[in-house]
Hints:
By secondary structure, the protein is an alpha+beta fold. It has three domains: 26-135, no CATH class; 141-177; 201-318, Beta-lactamase (3-Layer(aba) Sandwich), CATH 3.40.710. Helices cover 48% and strands 15% of the residues. It has helices at 2-18, 36-50, 52-55, 77-93, 114-123, 142-169, 208-220, 228-239, 243-253, 256-267, 293-304, 311-318, and strands at 26-33, 58-63, 66-75, 100-103, 108-110, 133-135, 181-185, 190-195, 201-202, 290-291. Strand 7 (181-185) and strand 8 form a beta hairpin. The protein is globular, with a radius of gyration of 26 Å.
Amino acid sequence: MRFFAAALALALSTPAATRAAAPALYDVSYLWHVDRAAAFARRDAVAKILGPTAAKHLLVVSADGACGVVYLRDADRARAAKVAASHTRLLKRHRLGKAWIVGTRDWAEIAPNPAAVRAVAAATPIHKRRAFRIARPSKIAPAELETARSAEQRRLEGLVAAHVRLLRREGRLSPDERTAWSVYDFTTGQTLVEINTDLELQAASLIKPLLALAYMSRVSEGKLVYDARSRLELERMIQHSDNAAADWTMRRLGGPAAVQSLLRRRYGALLTGVEIKEYIPADGRTYRNKASARDYSRFLLALWRDELPGSEEIKRLMSLPKRDRIKTGAPLP
């Protein structure tokens, strides 16, 4: 009996152990956003760039509480990534961000009417078709959308103002200390919160990504090399906010005045309020280097769009893990 039980267990387990796993399939995505109107606008913009043939396979879908734009590909990772890279090159010419791969699933499509879903399905080859589920959204007039956005903006500004008041009550901000806030949605180009955005304030360590930009600019000009030593120093400067590494970078660039001259010459329209006037001392008490929140927002937007020299490397540096760094986002209340 013991032998029979063992043989039965072996017979039952062997097929599961030897059965080949189904290959993972992927689609291509261009945007995920809570705003349905933003998703439809991006779908239309992407369709215009990719052309009518590709547009037949572009869907606005609902998943995980967000609206997304998805290109039905049903391909393995390598083929889907190749399509995403090709589409990214086209999108960047029109400043429409990037495309990336997402795992294939039974998408719940959002459409103005069911006929739109049937039209997409009918245009899809039989071997590529899926059973589409229709997520029927309620119709929202454009005026109502604008009102909703304005209300949301006011709510966000109120939350920021309340947070500043809390910081003052806790003594983390002095009563006469000024702050600046900028909340900008890179995917839609919409400014959500602006508080003192043009006010030039002491920049402290916020100049460090700008130093990385200056260094990469000189590399692109052939004046400096990005070798193992400079990579290490920039990693220390950005990941660990190391002041000595920041000063090393400034010295390699010729000093604070040279950095200021370079940024003004190459990025004067982007960084209108940036002032680099001094090295950062060991204790970090630097008061003369200044920038505005709007400067930083413009810099981050250009970085997001890969419009700056060394954009990919600067983004890599800024995404390196650190104890107090938010890497993947934060929930909004």
